[in-house]
Amino acid sequence: xxxxxxxxxxxxxxxxxxxxxxxxxxxxxxxxxxxxxxxxxxxxxxxxxxxxxxxxxxxxxxxxxxxxxxxxxxxxxxxxxxxxxxxxxxxxxxxxxxxxxxxxxxxxxxxxxxxxxxxxxxxxxxxxxxxxxxxxxxxxxxxxxxxxxxxxxxxxxxxxxxxxxxxxxxxxxxxxxxxxxxxxxxxxxxxxxxxxxxxxxxxxxxxxxxxxxxxxxxxxxxxxxxxxxxxxxxxxxxxxxxxxxxxxxxxxxxxxxxxxxxxxxxxxxxxxxxxxxxxxxxxxxxxxxxxxxxxxxxxxxxxxxxxxxxxxxxxxxxxxxxxxxxxxxxxxxxxxxxxxxxxxxxxxxxxxxxxxxxxxxxxxxxxxxxxxxxxxxxxxxxxxxxxxxxxxxxxxxxxxxxxxxxxxxxxxxxxxxxxxxxxxxxxxxxxxxxxxxxxxxxxxxxxxxxxxxxxxxxxxxxxxxxxxxxxxxxxxxxxxxxxxxxxxxxxxxxxxxxxxxxxxxxxxxxxxxxxxxxxxxxxxxxxxxxxxxxxxxxxxxxxxxxxxxxxxxxxxxxxxxxxxxxxxxxxxxxxxxxxxxxxxxxxxxxxxxxxxxxxxxxxxxxxxxxxxxxx
Amino acid sequence: xxxxxxxxxxxxxxxxxxxxxxxxxxxxxxxxxxxxxxxxxxxxxxxxxxxxxxxxxxxxxxxxxxxxxxxxxxxxxxxxxxxxxxxxxxxxxxxxxxxxxxxxxxxxxxxxxxxxxxxxxxxxxxxxxxxxxxxxxxxxxxxxxxxxxxxxxxxxxxxxxxxxxxxxxxxxxxxxxxxxxxxxxxxxxxxxxxxxxxxxxxxxxxxxxxxxxxxxxxxxxxxxxxxxx
Lengths: 615, 229
Fold this sequence. Notes:
The complex is a heterodimer of chains A (615) and B (229). Chain A is an alpha+beta fold and 615 residues long. Chain A has four domains: 6-191, ATPase, nucleotide binding domain (Nucleotidyltransferase, domain 5, 2-Layer Sandwich); 201-255 and 357-451, Nucleotidyltransferase, domain 5; 258-341, Actin, Chain A, domain 4 (Alpha-Beta Complex), CATH 3.90.640; 477-607, no CATH class. Chain A contains twelve helices and 29 strands. In chain A, the strands form six sheets. In chain A, strands 20, 21, 22, 23, 24, 25, 26, 27, 28 and 29 form a ten-stranded antiparallel sheet that branches. In chain A, β13 and β14 (242-250) form a beta hairpin. Chain B is mainly alpha-helical and 229 residues long. Chain B is 48% helix and 9% strand. Chain B has helices at residues 4-49, 51-72, 106-120, 122-127, 135-156; strands at 157-161, 170-173, 194-197, 203-208, 212-213. Chain B has a two-stranded antiparallel sheet with strand order 1-4. In chain B, α1 (4-49) packs antiparallel against α2. The radius of gyration of chain B is 28 Å and the shape is extended. β5 (47-51) of chain A pairs antiparallel with β5 of chain B, so a sheet runs across the interface.
């Protein structure tokens, strides 16, 4: 195969997608030029505009809603699905036809992610689609946008990096990779978003990062996007005189982002208006949310400002006299947003969980505690021992109750107002000061919206041409649940043991590992295993059998399953197998069942992305 | 019967007026002649070294001469800016070639107006009678218009000042400055370089990124009517 000309990075975000690229015919050494693709999309019926971001929204129009010609794009397209700006705008007035946050649904453990159930709660006549299909839709829009501008170098033939949240589980990663393959991408790798942000910082420094980062540094990446908060720790080590980066820990999947913050402010202002006897309809509330976002950025950008007026335009043509004027004050922003989402808490603060009511409708598992700083405190405390096995790192001082970061990189649109970066810096530095540790530095992030896509393109480039790489391997260790053989006792579940099948930090493309334990698979029957992960158990080796573990160290994931075809075997016969695990070059986890008796047969052990309820 | 004496005086006066008129006309003609000479030399010179200009002039000239021919035939139908004195036959003046006005596509104007309505509610704002409302109400609506128009400018245009010097400061315009970029006013005499005060720094759209429109889209619909079901 001839070498591709472009290295492409795709940020498949919860609220926005972006595509960045590097032309191998330009730039050299530390001077690698990346660019972002303008993405043509419908901005109004019959109008196509180029935008740097593609809003991750999908609108399923009524057949009578638009003239089909008004939904045409610069490439052949399906008029029953609208993606991007127009989708978002239409959805604000007709939400029953809008698909949003498909990415968050993609890692929902209780649902079949290939089942067409979005938009959630839409009437029956709306043809629904699955979270997986929505992801394919966004990717194929980006593919067409690229191909129409680069007909000589089709996207499918380039080297492509697609980013995923660091907290994505193996099943969600697999689904993302599958979506990318569904649009024809052959040379694919997955990259964790906080790593991509760090790559972007490295590239923007044009080689200067080597003087800005020191051996022994622990970089905390705080990535708060529109819908999710993603945390990672990356250590700076040295190997043969050259600086190396190692990702040592990732946080849990936290559904908490900038949209929550804007919504909170909008609810506050709505309550204020209600007090004055003014009721807002859904459309006006959307307009208010938009107004709050702008007012918030103005207020956070200028602490001397007392308040910023917000006008909700009338919906009818009577603009003067029909519009509602209100304002957002500095005090309100400080109280609800800064104190609500970034409260000054101690290092031992933990997110608050309240028990969900039993009769809860299946919905997205939004974070219950909105305080980003409490999630941060919990993450750093949980990872206090993350550097223990790393060369060149001194053991954390005995009194350290959390891992002490030495540098912080912010990412995501939420941090555009610098005061919020300063706020988080201040809080973390107070934690550090309380344990007599030096304050952390703030790394200069240049492009909070596009850094992930740009860093992903840089990573694709670095993979081929060499250059700095972040090592780290799998962010979790993985375990298969095994029922202990014991006499059955009525009313008591059999004891569960956990067999480690993948150790934490297993590198992409490394040799497959296999625990020595044997399993019996029944021919012709679907065999299921319970599946667990841990992002703290660093010492467990493949083959280790845990009989007992602290409850918060292992998290149960979707079960995994396999089925032995009955060909050439007797149905019901039991075949002894071993499980083999490999992290592919792409970055997905692959589990295989291998017969002990030998032979070339292999059976794939698949993630059950069909949900636990559906079966 | 006319008085011979007075009629003689009248005749003299008439002759004097006639002479004066002629004199003024001759002076005007000489002035025009000189200016035209300048234009002729300029056109000749430029046509000589700039082949495109020569061709453009040629195209313009053939159109210009047709216009002249039409003007000559029905004199009443061609209103002339300066009345021609009777005794003098005004010489045929070489004219500047007719402007080749680029046809401004009405579509893009409608498209921009549609954007102004969508983002800034401009048409709604202008179609209402401001007089019926308080300044506070007008002010509130003006915020919507201002924020929205600003968004359209940010999204679809790149705008930069023509001159980077501070307004109110002194600027020098060298010979050969572009009169389309800088409008000179006031004591307009002498030759460049001109020195003066920058009153307005000007604006230049350095980039225009209007949405592309599918063919067949009716742009005369500036805002669709909205019906909620």
